[in-house]
Amino acid sequence: MNDREAIDAAVAAWNEGGPDAFLEHLAPDVEWHAPEGFPEGTVWHDRESLAPVMREQFGSVFTGARIELQEAVEGPGGWLVGGRQSAVHDSGVEVDWASWFVVHLEDGLVRRIWLFMDREPALRQAGLDG
Fold first, then answer.
1. DSSP code for 35
2. CA distance 67 to 114
3. Is the pTM of this model over 0.90?
């Protein structure tokens, strides 16, 4: 499986099975970077410590979380992966937002990942800012 296929498989896993299915596409020693000010923390150093955060955020607050992949471009600093996320909040409100990730893959698994809520810093991280 090449890197692009691994990205597509991870997105499909999220859409079909939520956080637990997605977690299977992360290396056991994944390094996950959240945006500054993220309430649950900013860096996790393994899948085991990241799993409860993802389950809490998406398993207990949202239902039907999905990602619509809009771009996946390889840059010198990693893959820029962007798309629209949508979910239904427990209150019944449908939410939709854009997010970008910069990912490094090893052996078909996500080894490092940075999450961004704006495209410009994601472009910089991926080395695609010009």
1. P
2. 16
3. yes
Which residue segments constitute the domains of the chain, with CATH numbers given? 3-126 (3.10.450.50)
Reported as a single tens digit per residue, the pLDDT across 10-65 is 999 999 999 999 999 999 999 999 988 887 788 999 999 999 988 887 777 788 88
Distances (CA, A) of 126 to 38, 81, 88: 21, 10, 30
Tokens of 39: 């309430």
The token pair at 44 is 């996790």
- Please state whether beta strands 109-116 and 26-33 pair in parallel, antiparallel, or not at all (unpaired): parallel
Q: What angle do CA 121, 9, 66 make, to 5 degrees?
A: 65
